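Hi F.,

I've been meaning to write this up properly since the lab meeting, where we talked about keeping a consistent format for the predictions we share between groups. The idea is simple: the sequence comes first, exactly as it goes in, then the structure tokens exactly as they come out, then a line or two of notes. No screenshots and no reformatting. I'm using this chain as the first example so we have something concrete to point to.
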Amino acid sequence: MELKQPINDLYKHCYYVKHNNYNNLNEQIEKENFYLNNNFIYEEMINNFLDNNEQVHNKKSKYNEHLNENDLFTLTYDFFKNLDSDIFKKFTILFKNKENNVSFINDKINSKYVGYTKKYQNNFIKIEMIKNNNITDLYTLVHEYGHAINHLNNDFKYTFYRKPFSEIESTFLELLLSNYLEKNDFNQKDILCYNNFMFDSIYKDALFMKAKYLFLDFQNLNHLNCHNKNYYKEIKQMVNVSKKDIKYLYSINSYELLPYVISPLYAFELYDMYLKLKEKALSVYKKIICFDSPSTIDIINNLESFYLYPNETDTCIRYLKRK
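Output, unedited:
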């Protein structure tokens, strides 16, 4: 069994993933494998997505249209205003206090996230984001307001089980934003550039997860022991990767990465529903943001009750991969 792509050629720019220097690689591998062992349910979704799609290989994006702070907030407000009255009411609760609950990060190099939303104990919701003065800011702010609306009336108890699905709502809003911008004659090349970047990011993150599941398979099938001094030697004999590659792979926290792979697969399906039945899709969206369950299977069953099955349709993927 061989990796289709060497690990050191996989995506090196996961902007939202925490990169840590672990003193004990064996300990990190144990923790990661424990998490992956309890999440095999996602492996087939990831493999199906990769098997049926090819990476865009988008070059570094150059956006044509400048977007200042006033434009950013005006377009965000108009997007939500034209989306849905119930969602807009929740949005305005947050937006009227934007001077206090939205701040921009200046340190792009050391920031671990493009955007981040947090709810504090006093129910204050704070959005922090990097500002690039182009279309990416608009997608980031809409994405983060998706999380903020989610947090507005919800105090989730079972965040561990909800985590892989926690990006469905925000990814769905990004897809709808592309529709909104196209209808309002925004720069088409910029929209296309961002869409390709979105798909490319998801694809590369899925490659990471596939590689991690593959290593887990090696350990399960061959009874490898990461405390054994020959552990890395045995791995290298089976897959042509170095200890450095393994260390890099396991420096990426699967708990943080998985939502950016699994959630989009469901968001794609919800978007396809939106193209056919707009009101139904928005109704499902409003139900999804309230999901809170002590079981992964229960969440998946709830999603399936809305006829959301990952990789069942490809309308959205074709839309994202337009050249």
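Notes:
Residues 1-22 have pLDDT under 50 and may be disordered.
The first strand starts at residue 102 and ends at 105.

If this format works for you, I'll send the rest the same way.

G.
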